[in-house]
Design brief:
By secondary structure, this protein is an alpha+beta fold. The chain contains twelve helices and ten strands. The radius of gyration is 30 Å and the shape is elongated.
Length: 341
């Protein structure tokens, strides 16, 4: 039985291949040739390939929901750029003599075989899918090798390292930390309102005792249903974002030693005490030199990769729908005209 294009595209989505359109664009023998969507340095990208890649991108991003028109327009442009860049990167890799790692490709093929061998779709389509899948994995491997080689950055100079450290204080600053204690009066989430009211009244009484000088740790050991009760309610240090929003905003306005009003949490009613506040502190370069160098190298590598793609696009002959334009400047109306066929 000859597989349908829908079957091939469905397998492409399931596989999550970097260039899933290579599956979707491979129809049964005897299929009429697809119209040309774009020509990049003499290499044609068919409308079928574009539509297949777009369908996969839509499904991956929006699942089975209909995407909003404004987001669909942006996604169409993203898919167009991705297909154009792929052609240019493959040509650059070929110019550099990069060949696919066939052992890695065979291993990936074997993984697909193992993963989908029990699916009727795979058995039905395997003979037609494998050539395109193999080609797609080879191209994926070639581009991955090119990317790795491009992202290699030389070690930073001392001046460069210090400059990077100075430009990114937020990356090397420990956020403010607060040390909290908690008394949690547990209430089952499905308990009736009366149970929550009773816990709230008990928590309010505990707050009164604490504000009159009662020992927080002693009350926590006596009343709290949290694991921290054995440590007198001590929760240790917490960073911003580790607490529920309402609790965090309350803690922000508290001084060390202060006790909060009762809070309703998912687990019950809680009372907090702020024991200590440690302000944000920037770590010294001498203590994190290796970490700074790693982040610098990552940023440099990303910049070098973007620059390569920009250079390849700037010098390339790219035609979208017959118009000689850089793909990044393709008019949305032109994209709609092409994909609506």
């Amino acid at each position: 039985m000859i597989p349908s294009k829908r079957t091939l595209a469905g397998l492409a989505v399931a596989a999550g291949l970097l260039a899933p359109a290579c599956w979707a664009a491979t129809g049964p023998p005897g299929d009429p040739p697809s119209a040309v969507f774009a020509v990049v340095e003499g290499t044609a990208i068919s409308e079928q390939e574009f539509k297949g890649a777009l369908a996969v991108a839509v499904r991956q991003k929006f699942y089975h929901r209909r995407p909003p028109d404004d987001q669909l327009a942006a996604l169409r442009q993203e898919v167009t750029d991705r297909l154009v860049n792929r052609v240019l990167l493959l040509k650059e890799a070929q110019r550099r003599g990069i060949r696919p790692d066939e052992e890695k490709v065979r291993s990936d093929i074997a993984a697909y075989e193992k993963r989908y061998r029990d699916r009727p779709q795979w058995q039905e389509s395997r003979v037609h899918v494998l050539p395109a899948l193999t080609r797609g994995l080879q191209e994926q491997n070639i581009i991955a090798q090119l990317e790795v080689a491009t992202r290699v950055a030389p070690p930073p100079t001392e001046a460069g390292l210090r400059a990077y450290y100075g430009r990114h204080p937020e990356s090397f600053t420990e956020p403010e930390r607060v040390r909290l204690s908690m008394i949690l009066l547990k209430v089952d989430p499905s308990a009736p309102a009366a149970a929550w009211e009773q816990a709230l009244e008990q928590a309010q009484d505990i707050v009164k005792q604490l504000r009159k000088g009662a020992d927080f740790a002693a009350l926590a050991r006596l009343n709290s249903g949290d694991d921290s009760a054995r440590d007198g309610g001590d929760l240790g240090y917490k960073h911003r974002g580790m607490l529920p929003a309402g609790v965090e905003s309350e803690i922000d306005g508290m001084a060390p030693g202060a006790v909060s009003a009762p809070f309703r949490l998912l687990e019950g009613i809680a009372v907090f005490r702020l024991a200590e506040r440690k302000p944000a502190q920037r770590r010294r370069l001498e203590d994190i030199r290796r970490n700074v160098a790693e982040l610098w190298a990552r940023e440099q590598g990303e910049a070098q990769w973007r620059e390569l793609i920009a250079r390849l696009r700037a010098g390339a002959e790219i035609r979208i729908g017959g118009d000689r334009l850089p793909a990044s400047a393709v008019d949305e109306a032109n994209l709609r005209r092409q994909t609506a066929r």
